[in-house]
Structures are given as C-alpha cells and as structure tokens.
Amino acid sequence: MLTSMMPQEGRRFVLNSKGRAVPEILDGVEMIPYRSHYGIEPVVKREVGRVTRWRRPGDSKCLSSIDEALNRCGLSDGMTISFHHHLRNGDRVLNMVMDRIRSRGIKGLRLFPSALFPVHEPLIDAIRDGTITSIEGSLNGPIGRFVSQGNLESPVVLRSHSGRVRALSQGEVKIDVAFLGASCCDPLGNANGVNGPSAFGPMGFGYADALFAESTVIITDYLVPFPCLPISIPGTNVDWIVKVDSIGDPAGILSGTLQITDREDHLKIVRSTMEIMDRIGLFKDGFTFQAGAGGISLAITKYISDLFRERGLVADYASGGTTKYLVRMLRDGSLKTLLTGQAFDIEAVRSLIDDRNHVEVTVDQYANIHTGATITEPEQVAFLGATEVDLDFNVNVNTHSDGYLLHGIGGHQDVAWGSGLTFITVPLERKGNPIIREKVTTLSTPGELIDVIVTERGFAVNTEHARKEVRERNQEILSSCEKGGLPIFNIEELRKMALREGGKDVEARTGDQMIGLIKYIDGTVLDKVNIVLDGDQEDVPSSFLTPSSSGTR
Amino acid sequence: MLTSMMPQEGRRFVLNSKGRAVPEILDGVEMIPYRSHYGIEPVVKREVGRVTRWRRPGDSKCLSSIDEALNRCGLSDGMTISFHHHLRNGDRVLNMVMDRIRSRGIKGLRLFPSALFPVHEPLIDAIRDGTITSIEGSLNGPIGRFVSQGNLESPVVLRSHSGRVRALSQGEVKIDVAFLGASCCDPLGNANGVNGPSAFGPMGFGYADALFAESTVIITDYLVPFPCLPISIPGTNVDWIVKVDSIGDPAGILSGTLQITDREDHLKIVRSTMEIMDRIGLFKDGFTFQAGAGGISLAITKYISDLFRERGLVADYASGGTTKYLVRMLRDGSLKTLLTGQAFDIEAVRSLIDDRNHVEVTVDQYANIHTGATITEPEQVAFLGATEVDLDFNVNVNTHSDGYLLHGIGGHQDVAWGSGLTFITVPLERKGNPIIREKVTTLSTPGELIDVIVTERGFAVNTEHARKEVRERNQEILSSCEKGGLPIFNIEELRKMALREGGKDVEARTGDQMIGLIKYIDGTVLDKVNIVLDGDQEDVPSSFLTPSSSGTR
Fold first, then answer.
1. What average pLDDT does the segment B24-52 reach?
2. Which helix (H) or strand (E) holds A217?
3. Fold of A59-136+173-253
4. How many inter-chain contacts (A to B, CB under 8 Å) are there?
5. Contact assignment for B45 to A51 by CB distance below 8 Å
6. Centroid of chain to Cα A297
7. Of chain B's two ends, which shows fewer C-beta atoms within 10 Å, N or C?
8. Which residues of A touch B170 (CB under 8 A)?
9. B33 - beta bridge partners?
10. What is the pLDDT at residue A253?
C-alpha cells in the first residue's frame, strides 16, 4: 500500500491505500495512513478518563466569573480548550470565553471545538494575535477561508463527530479545559440543554469533553436547585460552574442548512431518492433511517413523513439531526422512536421534554466506531450531501473545488460507515462547476461506503467500488430500478452530464504548504489539504454551508 | 496516628486513626489506614475504562450459551468476575454462571458482587471446591457465617456501594468479566431492567462494572430489536449477549428487609424520629431525604408520606432504595422528584417506566466520594440502622456482637457521609444483647458522621463526637428537643438503659486469623474482622438481615 515517499517542506509524506499523500508525522506524532473503510482496531486497550476535582460536602463548584474559572483551571499557554456546538450559530459561549482568555494574554492554545459557525468569526482575531495557534475541528466559512490562506501556525485536523470522540477516548487528543454551555445546571454540575430560557436540545457533543477533559466548566444562564433533570452531562464530570447572563440565542440553531429546499432541481433529486427507496421496497413497517440537515435531506425527511402518514406505515426509529418533520412523525404515530444527537429546530428541543419516545444520545452511542454499538448500524438508509463526488464514488464534503476548506466532516463518515444504504444527493453542477469529478479534490468519505449517487438528471448505483458485502445487493437495486424504468446511469455517464451541465472543472490553485488533515473515523489519515494561492476563484456562498454539503452536520 | 505495630499470623498491623488494628498489606497491596471521615483525596488522577471489543457492522454480539461467553471472554483461573444484585433474592444469574464455571474446573476466582443474598447459598460449594477463593463484596447470612468460620482462602474485603464503584474507577479492583443480568436488551447490548417479564428496576449497580470490566456479558431473557429504551447500560460497554430462559424471579426483590415494622418498640422509634424532625422544623416544602430498606426506615418513609399529604406539603426530592411509599408521594404530588438506585418492590419498577419525574441513577452519581457530585449531599436527612452503636456514636452494621460477619455495608457510609442529618434507628437490645456498646465490635461507619441515635426509650444527639461543622447545629437540635420535652438522653445514659433492658454484652469469641476487612468509602481501611471460634453463641435470625441493620442496603 505504502508505495511512495515524497519529502515536501521538510515533511515526509506517504501514500495511503486510496493513493492520497499524507504526512508520516504531525507535531511529533506518528500518523497512521488510511487503510480500509472497515477501519483499524483501537490503538489502545483502555480508555483514560478523568477524576473530578476532589471536594467535601458543602464546598461549592459555583464561581463568580469566567476569569475565576480560568484561574481555578490554571489555563496557560499551549493548552487545549474545547467547546460544543449545540447552540450552533446562536452560541455566545465560545466568544465570551475567548474574550477573557485573550484579555489575559494567554498564547498558543489549541482549539478543539465540535464545530465552528460564522458567529465565531472573532476567532480570526485570536488566530492573528497568537492566542490560537492550532485548531482540531471543523472550520466553517470565514475561518476556513482564513486558514486556507495559510494563516494558522499548525495544520488543522478534521475529524467526523464520532472520530472526535474516539480521539478523546483513546488519548489522541487531551483537553485541558472544556467549556460547556448548558441551558440548565444545578449546584452539583448536573446539566442539560432542554430546560431554561436558552434551551437548545441535547448535549451529546459535550458529553465526552466532560468525561475526558482535565477540567470541565459548565457555563450556564439558568442555575436551578438540585436536581437538574434530565441529566445530560452528569455533575460527576464537572469541576466548576459559571453563571452568565446569556449563553446564546437558541433561534441561532436554525441556520442556513436548515431551510427545506424549494429549488426544482433539488426537488427532482428528492423525488428520485424517494422513488428508488419505494422501488426497492424500503417503505414498510419497521423502516429505520438517519435524518440530517441540508435542504435536500430535510425535504426527504418531510417526504418520508408525508408518505408514511398517507400509507399508514410505522417506522421503527430514526436518528437525527432532528427537525419538526421527525417530531411530526413521532407524534402522528408513523415513527416509534426518535434518537437525537443534535436538535435543528425548537420543535426538536421541546419534543425532547414532551415525548418519552424521543431520546437524547451521546456521540459515542451515535457512531464511535470503536464502541461496538453505534446506533447508525441498524439504520437501513441515510441521505448525505457532498461538495464533490468522483468516479470511484469517493466523496468530498470539506473543500470546494477551488481548494478552500470551508466545511467540517460532520457525521458524514459516521453515517456512511454504519448505515445499510448510503445515498449521496447532489446537483450535477454548482455555479458552473461540475460536481461529479474524475477525482475528488479532497477525500472525505471513501467511495466503498457510498451506494447510490442521486442527481437531478438521474442516479448511479455503486456496484463495482462498494464494499464487497453489499455489491450483490447493490446489483439487485440496480436491476430493480432498471425494471422500474428509473433513470439509471453509470457514474461515468453522470460525469459526462455534469461536464455538459457545468462546463469545465474548477481546479484548485494550491501551494505546497499543508494547512489541513482529514482523518477517518478510526484515526487514520485519509487526505491532506493544502494552502490556496489565489483568493478569489469562486464566490464563497453567503451561507457558510452549501445547501446539501452534508446531511448530518 | 499510627501508634503501634502488631505482628500477627505473619501480617503486620497498624492502628488507624480510630484505634483499630488494620493490616499494612493485603495480597501484596499496601493498605491505607483510615484517616478521617472526610476521606482522602483520590489516589489516582485518571480513571481507566475499557475499550469494547472491536467489531464491524453486522458482526453479532449474541452468543448461544453462557459456555460460549466463558470461551469468548477467555475466563480462566485466578480471574475476577462480577455481578449486580438488582434481582436480590430472586436472582438466578449468579448461580447459573457459577454452575457453568464450576463445570469447567476453573479455580481460584475472585468474586466481586455488588451484594450476595441467601439465594446464592450454592456459592458455599464453589468456595469448598476452590472455584472461589476470594470475595470482595458483602456477605449476607449463610455465606457470611461460612466465611466467619475461616473457610475462605483470602480475607473478604467489604466496601460500601459507592466504595465499590470508586475502587473500580481507580483501578483498585479490576474485573475480568462482568456478568450482568438485564430484563431487556437489544442486539447492540443496550440494556435495562424495567422492561420484559423479569423487570427488576434500575441497573445502576451494574453500570460501573460494564464500564470498567475487561469484558462485559449481558445475560437476558428478553432480547428485543434495537433500540431497547431506556438505555440503562449502554451497548457501547457491552461485548457479548446471552439469552437464557429466565434471569430470575422479580418477586424475590421483595425480601425480609422490606417488611414494614409492626412491632410496638420499633414503632416507638419511628414516632420518636418523626417528632424530632418535626420539632426542628424539617417538615416543610423543599424537604429532601434518603429512604431505604429495613422495617424502621420503611415505616419512617410511610409516616413522612402520610404527614406530607395531610399537611399539603411538597418535598423537593427523595433518593431511594425506592418503595411504594415513595412512589405514592410522587404520585400524590407531595414529592417533586424521585431518584432511584435500587427498586425494592414492583411498584418502584413500574413507576420508573410510568413517572417521568422518577429517574434512575448510577452508584457513581449516588455517592462516589470522588466525583464531587453525590446526590446524597443535598439530602437534609437520612435514616440508617445498626447492629451496634457505641459511646462515640460509631456504628457497626457488618458483624453481630458474637463476631459473625453477616451483613454488607450497603449504602451506610455513603449516606452518612453525604446527607445533612444522619439518624441511627435502633432498639436498645436484641435477644438480650444490649445494642449500645462501650465500643462497637466492628467499625463500619465512624461516629463523626452520625448525628442522632434513636431508640424506643429515647434518643441521644451527637454534640461532642460529630464532625466539627455540625456540632453547633446538633447542639441547637438538642436544645430545641429539650424545650419540646422530648425524651433526650446522653449516649452513656442510653448505654445504661440498654444494659438494663438487655443484660450482659454478648462478646465475640474470635481467633487471630483475619477473615475480613472493612473499607471506608475513600478506600482506606476502617477495621478488620477475625475468625469466630465458637459457632453457636447467638441464633442467626431466619431472615439474613436484622430488621434495621442498614437503611440503604
């Protein structure tokens, strides 16, 4: 597999099994090149969690300010700090904490967020003044553009949602201080995101941070007497609590990815995906699926909801990225159980309180490859987006074709790895750029995990490049759809149609400097991302996410 | 503190801060003598958990038999195995697994149960034939008697419920294979105890076992499609699943400790405890308390329930050891929230499903001293039993006065450490044996943590020997009760009354051989227990527990 070595800017690179050049070493740590979509076995045998700060009954965890928390946690140069993204573009916690950190002149921090949003644009100043010199986590929109231009000292490391938790559990990343926004907290540190004026939903993205960080600080605007129920983050993993005026604006969890599409070309993709699923007999009692964000995924969820109600069918469970469409299914009886890792609207937040068959899950439960119990596994089907796909069904969700690193991996790899049948829903072109490529600019999810690519003009089924255990099944899907007269093409034909629709491939003008690394869910390295030399080849969309870049962000 | 060394049967002993001789070393491991009721800081900085067995999607966790599980887990001589006790005297899992282990001739195992019950009497055969050579966990009734006579190779180590979990989290005990009975489980290993034909309630006593064991096996008689909800044990910590015909008889969770007392002397204790609480103004909205098993504790819970309903008061929360009396309070609105670590009757099991403000908690959350978030801490009051108390308010719950080790610590230390005001409810004598002693035969819970001792003839308040931060408060309690004309005595007076009521102290006829060790919640050693030389000084009660030996077993 490891066929070649290529020294470059002082680094040694090696080709992984997908033929992508990846660094042998990063920041002194040996990188394992990607081997196979199945993943590698855990590199450690035991997880190393934390012992919470020792206190006697009566000692208080409540501090008067973020500054006091920084003191108590001993935050200093070079440490790693983490945040969850449940408040999405309404989050105030990250900026609030960074403001106090910068005012103290602490430098050289590694930022380990579960995701960043446009609201976090002030981070650019923290990068400029050396407060932040390293980021491991998704870079959306403005910060991604800034980093793509070579403005961050260390290459960013991108992991999927579950890859991030796996990294924590295996000591690949060690958080010094986790700052976790909670909409409700009691004096013992038991916290949730479903009660209080800033309720934002589940807190699963902060669970592992609290468990594995050296110190955990809950930032809340709603401190209640014990017990705060439900307990999403147990106080047993919390050292300090800071009450602030406001942790954010829950309205901000509704962001650009959460508008259902009304574009006719996109709706063609939605209808085509529905037709395929119907044709191959998925729509019956017991159906299980993964829902997500992005205009097309949202529309599919809505269409499934409508169809199940009309036909009087009952799905067993769905996992979300939860929106009102899933809540509606749950409430009208066409869905038995709803498992939620992220809430994408206020209806989802309320339902977590009101509906007993709607359950919050941690990211570990959702998709950590090394737990042996991912809830993605029993899912029959999932719908994901892409910025590009290629002839081997490989998917890029991270960079645009011009090379800019503008998106995180989200749950893309997680869901593709676990669920039975993975759809990629993409338009043939965006702004004249063909989306079906010879080779993806950046490899985010291996084509082995992708089963069907659906475009507005037709779809392709992965029979050759899919993982071997589903090739026969995919061949049957192909035959069934052919018999049904559905618009099937092979991937090369889709590529030609994309070229006709779009025109010439946009090519990235990148330099030698590595600015980012894409890790697979098992911790191996799928690809690297290089610096973009020319700043204005393509307009960056005003929304930080393309409408269907990833279904489970 | 460590004033003397006393070599004995090849061991070196040292006096701890309570003047009890404890071994310096046990099985090659250095023992830390008990220092203070506050506890010591954690001896480790990080918890070491497990990485679940690696599997690919589609690989099954379900095995055909216990024998196959023993094979897959590689169970062999000298390993440590664990069980939870939620099915109490109705449990079939432990005997079923031990039967298969014995049939394979595996020897020298260490047994680490959360508690043993009379139903586990067949263990005596496993001790006799060398299958089990060491036990760390409570020994109730017949097995305790057998061990007290010197029949186990290694001294047993007794820990409180939370001390057991602390030991796991700090690597003090490492489980090789945890066998956890579940009344419901899905193919990913997500399990609970509230669904299915053998529903027994929460599974909090198995949570830490699943998290820290090298291998975890769920034994269930009710395998359901994913998802099994609620998830009490996450499948992320489960390696294997074995379906059996029956895990036990849930009727067996109702055992001898769960009969409400109707003895007039006991009811005097109950009424007196109620009077004290009323006199000092505890009975008002916002009341919080710990409930437990034992006839007297049960009666107090019932009396509180009656009183709150009559007066239209609303308690904030109770933590149980949950029975129908607490469920009734919850349902009639006189209790806002109920937290349950153990279900003591079928009403408690059903309520966990039906009542959303009734929540299952893990033992870690309940009382692990090193988590900084024990739910015992905000409790205003708790009621515990004793086999003996002494002039320093020290409590014995483990041995009878004749020296026989017949009871575990249960939650005794846990609750006394955390809750605000700790009552010990005891009769002055049992079968002619005075219960108030000069010195307790065995030190289970330090007198510093005890506030009031209530007997059928009167009560004593701990003003001198209590922890310093509550002495003033206890003095106020004393004054208030005196003003109210309640029957207050000092502890020496109670001792004299006990002697008058009971007669002569039963004295233990013990030899030099150490057969047991009593650990404090922080892992330090409180006391040792020696072999009993004469087998029939006192009748062992037909019930394996004295009516009020511990409130939170």
1. 91
2. strand A215-220
3. Glutaconate Coenzyme A-transferase (3.40.1080)
4. 160
5. yes
6. 14
7. N
8. 51
9. B525
10. 85
Residue recorded with tokens 């939860």: A322
Residues B333, B321: Cα–Cα separation, whole Å: 19
- Amino acid identity for residue B41 in this structure: E
Query: Is A132 within 8 Å of A97 (Cβ atoms)?
Result: no
pLDDT tens profile A128-181: 999 999 999 988 788 999 999 999 999 999 999 999 999 999 999 999 999 999
Structure-token pair, residue A108:
């050289």
List, as one string, the DSSP characters of A408-471: --TTHHHHHHHSSEEEEE--SEETTEESEESS-SS--B-GGG--EEE-SS-EEE-SSSS-HHHH
The beta strand positions in A52-151, using DSSP E, are 62-63, 80-83, 109-113, 132-135
Please state, in angstroms and rounded to a whole number, the distance separating the CA atoms of residues B241 and A373.
12
Exposure string (b/e) for B100-136, b if CB count within 10 Å is 16 or more?
bbbeeebbebbbbbbbbbbbbeebbebbeeebbbbbb
List CB contacts (< 8 A) between B237 and chain A. Answer: 371
pLDDT higher than threshold 50 for residue B549:
no
Number of helices (H), then strands (E), belonging to chain B: the values are: 14, 30
- B522: closest chain A residue by CA: A54
Which amino acid is residue B192, in one-letter code?
N
Q: What top-level class would CATH report for the domain B254-361?
A: alpha beta
Interchain CB distance below 8 Å, B226 and A378: yes
User: DSSP secondary structure string, A287-315?
Assistant: -EEE---SHHHHHHHHHHHHHHHHHT--E
Q: What span, in angstroms and rounded, lies between the C-alpha atoms of A213 and A204?
A: 15
- Which residues lie below 8 Å from residue B539, measured CB to CB, with a gap of 6+? B431
Q: What is the mean pLDDT of chain A?
A: 92
**pTM listed for this prediction:** 0.94
CB contact under 8 Å between A226 and B317, yes or no, is: yes
Contacts of A411 (CB under 8 A, 6+ apart): A160, A161, A162, A292, A321, A341, A366, A367, A550, A551, A552, A553
Strand partners, A113: A83
CA max distance for chain A: 72
Q: A165, A188, A361: which to substitute to probe chain B, counting the most B Cβ within 10 Å?
A: A188
Asked if the model's pLDDT at residue A378 lies above 90, the reply is yes
The 8-class DSSP code of residue A54 comes to P
- Average confidence (pLDDT) over A342-351: 94
Contact (CB, 8 A) for B331 and B358 = no
Residues B97 and B177: beta-carbon distance below 8 Å: no
- Please tell me which of the candidates A41, A229, A370 has its beta carbon nearest to residue B359: A229
**pLDDT value of position A541:** 39
| Type and span of the H or E element at B268 | helix B264-279
Query: Residue A537's pLDDT band (boundaries 50, 70, 90)?
Result: very low
Query: What would the CATH number be for the domain defined by A256-532?
Result: 3.40.1080.10
For chain A, residues classed under CATH 3.40.1080.10 are 59-136+173-253, 256-532
Which CATH superfamily groups domain B60-136+173-249?
A: Glutaconate Coenzyme A-transferase (3.40.1080.10)
Residue A190 to residue B58, Cβ atoms within 8 A: no
Give the least confident one: A484-498, B441-455, B524-538.
B524-538
* Cα A216–Cα A219–Cα A224 angle in degrees, nearest 5: 110
Angle between helices B264-279 and B295-311 (to 10 degrees): 50
Contact A188 B378 (CB under 8 A): yes
Total H helices, total E strands in chain A = 14, 31
Measured between beta carbons, which residues in chain B are less than 8 angstroms from residue A227?
317, 337, 339, 359, 375, 378
How far apart (Å, rounded) are the C-alpha atoms in residues A398 and A406? 6
C-alpha distances out from residue A532 to A116, A146, A517, A520, B127, Å: 20, 10, 14, 23, 71
| Backbone phi and psi for residue A399, each to the nearest 5 degrees, phi listed first | -105, 160
Specify the residue for token string 């090193």: B370
